[in-house]
Amino acid sequence: MNDSDEDHEYSDDSDSLETSLREGPMDFAIGIPSSFGSFFGLLPSRSVPTVCRFCPGYIQPSFSTTSCAASTSAEGTSSDRTTPWYTCPPDQEHVLCQCCFQPMPKNWSGVIPAQSIPPQKCAICSKYFCHILWGCKKAGCLGCLNKFTEFPVREGNLAVLINKNLYESKILKDYLTQQNLSKEDFLHRCLQKLDSKEYTTTDGGSHELTSSTVLCYKCGWRNFQELAYQFRRDIPRDQLPDSFRQRTDCYWGRNCRTQSMPHHASNFNHICEQTRFT
User: Fold this and answer.
1) Is residue 228 part of a domain?
2) How far is C-alpha 2 from the chain's CA centre?
3) CA-CA distance, 145 to 16, in Å (whole number)?
4) Which of 19, 36, 140, 235 is spaced 20 to 30 A from 182 at the CA atom?
């Protein structure tokens, strides 16, 4: 698995999709919805009505939906959600979850206290996701939105966690096994270092991230990789096998473009900074 695999686990096709929809009537011209009619110059454009689970008269989609993988997998997060009681008013504005593309309320009326409304937006990319609200139903969803403390670290993540370098990732994985640290323990220790300002994150320069920051899976993965690199860097050399300690540093360090090649990764250490052309 590589970075691109992770980035597509929750179908990031959202950039070209209009996410904010408003209630409106559906007109027909010769059996064609008004949006199509407007395209062919038959009718003025009107928005298609959007109905979410909180709307009166909502009907569960007839197509098959599988619960979020993070809900059903022992390696994922729980899908148990305390969904707030709410009924959408007629003029309710909706937004689409960028994982399952199902609508949910965007601007909630004053019926529910603001502090009781579950987070719906990633703190970094500002995209909307429904996992915390009611549990995303897309098949294969890994938990598209979570607090950083609940980021779903899977066994497959560990194999490519350190810069897509299988060798360095194996060193980390073996160390966790030797220290009897679970994936959750590992995440917790990384986040403790983040909260104490000992570790930094990829997006830390533009966003103040803490263990309680709400992140989508893609942004969470990117920043967790940086925390994991620093954790691997801090493993004492005397706790590494001799074969690992005897490697010389690669000139390009952590920025090396060929460290994903097993032969190069095994011959050179990449847990270091670039020294050539710096």
Assistant:
1) yes
2) 15
3) 20
4) 140
Q: Is the pLDDT of residue 231 over 50?
A: yes
Which residues lie across from 256 on neighbouring strands? Answer: none
Domain span including residue 183:
155-269
The encoded tokens of residue 235 equal 């493993």
Reduce the DSSP state of residue 94 to 3 states and report it.
Answer: strand
> Quick one: which of 18, 175, 43 has its CA closest to 103?
18
Residue 104 maps to a domain: no
CA atoms of 275 and 252, how far apart (whole Å):
6
Q: Residue 27 pLDDT more than 70?
A: no
What's the pTM value of the predicted model, to 2 decimals?
0.74
CA atoms within 13 A on the CB side of 219: 22
Q: Please, where are the H alpha helices in 94-241?
A: 131-134, 155-158, 166-178, 183-195, 217-233
Show the 3-state SS of 218-263.
Answer: HHHHHHHHHHHHHHHHCCCHHHCCHHHHCCEECCCHHHCCCCCCHH
82 in a domain, yes or no?
no
**Cβ(262)–Cβ(166) under 8 Å?**
yes
User: Which amino acid makes up residue 183?
Assistant: K
- In tens, the pLDDT along 112-150 reads 777 788 999 999 999 999 999 999 989 889 899 999 999
Average of per-residue pLDDT values in the chain: 79
As for how many domains the chain has, the answer is 1
Cα atoms in the 13 Å half-sphere on the side-chain side of 235:
23
